[in-house]
Amino acid sequence: MKRVIFLFIYVLCASISSYSQEIEGVATYSIRLAEDNLPFNAELRFTPSASLFFWKQGNTSRFLKKENFKSQIVDTDTLGYYIKRRTDSKKIRIRQFCGENNPVFYDDDVIHDWSLSNKEKKNISGKVCSKATTRFRGRDYVVWYTTEIPVQMGPWKFYGLPGLIMQVEDAKKEIFISLKSLNLVDGFNSSKYDEDIGKYLSKRELIDCLDDEWDKHYKKNRAIIAQLQSEFPELEISDNNLSKKRPATELEFD
Question: How far is the CA of 148 from the CAs of 62, 123, 198, in angstroms?
Fold first, then answer.
């Protein structure tokens, strides 16, 4: 059955490829990954052969975002976090941060085993969208895409469907990505992202780095609470259920 579904996707994507040769655009999204307390604005710039997805840029090396009684400290710079992809390559390049003033990047192989549902439809931003599902690195996802924009692009690490991906949600509702606006434009400038500024790591090295940073954050938070508790024993001090284990969008790796 999977082979039949894969063949269907391949034929459908091939059949619309001639219509997508000239399509270029900028899509803005709201993205909240499992690591995040809050949603962030993101942008996807795409052509038929390449895409650039970026978010969490800042004018300083660290900023605090507050919203609806929640907050999050973000380590970043003017380039922020980004994912670069070319359709003629199996690898994508990801840039993110592991601590303040420590931009890192790595290459990743991402393959989705999509299952399509032709019966279910949804309107998102005025576009008729179809449903697709996939299991990716330990999570089950529902994805909505539109063939009205026939490019095999999408936000974050999601792509490979016969239309632009408009919305993504995992079964636990810990990840949510949704389109906010879409503009078809020509000739946007992404040259400042050509050079990868940061330290190259393997995926395993990045995971170890992120785990170490989280462990330091957790221990520092516990130490602060212990000190406050000793000074003010009559107060109840909460850590907001801070997990000892680092929250992660990707729970398994290939």
Answer: 39, 12, 37
CATH of the domain at 68: 2.50.20.10
Kindly report, residue by residue over 126-152, the tens digit of the pLDDT: 999 999 999 999 999 999 999 999 999
When divided into structural domains, the chain yields a total of 1
Q: What range defines the domain where residue 95 resides?
A: 2-199
Residue 134: name the closest of 117, 110, 115, 147 by CA. 115
More reliable by pLDDT, 186 or 33: 33
- What does pTM read for this prediction? 0.89
Q: Which residues contact 82 (CB under 8 A, 6 or more apart)?
A: 52, 53, 54, 55, 94, 95, 193
Cα separation, 92 vs 84, whole angstroms: 6
Judge whether 87 lies within some domain: yes
Residue 48 in any domain: the answer is: yes
Q: Cα–Cα distance between 161 and 16 in angstroms, integer?
A: 11
Taking CA 254 as the corner, what is the angle to CA 47 and CA 30, rounded to the nearest 5 degrees? 45
